[in-house]
Amino acid sequence: MPVYRTPDGRIVEERTKQRLLGGRRKTTAPDSERTTVANAGDEAPPSPNPPRRGYGDPTVVHAPRTRGTGATSPPVAPDRETTRLHGSIGGSATGVEGAPPVVDPVAGWLVVVDGPGTGTDLRIGIGQNVVGRDPENRIGLAFGDRKISRRDHLRVNYDHERRVFSVVPGTSANLAYLNGTAIEQRSVLAAGDTIRIGRTTLRFVAFCGDDFNWPDED
Prior knowledge:
Blueprint: E1 3-5, E2 11-13, E3 20-21, E4 24-25, E5 106-114, E6 121-125, E7 127-132, E8 139-140, E9 154-159, E10 164-169, E11 177-178, E12 181-182, E13 187-188, E14 194-197, E15 200-206
């Protein structure tokens, strides 16, 4: 290996030789790289591999993660109006978005005051209201009273034009009783009347009548 003599007379090998040029340290780079000169106080060049921004970086917005699965939650859809379905005895709802719901106006109520289902109120709609144990009846007394006929035990009607309530025998062979008397023909209903059907007693409560009536449909 070549050796050199320093100004003070020492002999050193090439690998320890250093040349000072005006207070700067010169570093010899391979032929494929450029020679760089580092001066004291110079700003350091940017790192070629900047650190990745993670959960500690406030400028990064992260999607919420699902606990225990490691998966991100699906994007939340913007708020949209939800179509509400308004159901009632004898009524229905279209369920079509943007279409108004179809609501059967209430004309009065039958309230169970004795027997299975005590405390339950049942809506009376405009027109004929078939009463029976099957919930498919317009007024379904599905409370477990087996003495009530499944279908059409009797009918409670509201005449919208005359504003009159009445009770009519159904097609069933079983009887019902209005204020203790068997219903064998059409009878007018008055507020507070009671109807006994099977082991169930119903009290009639009017809503429509002389004081109020729903307007006629267009």
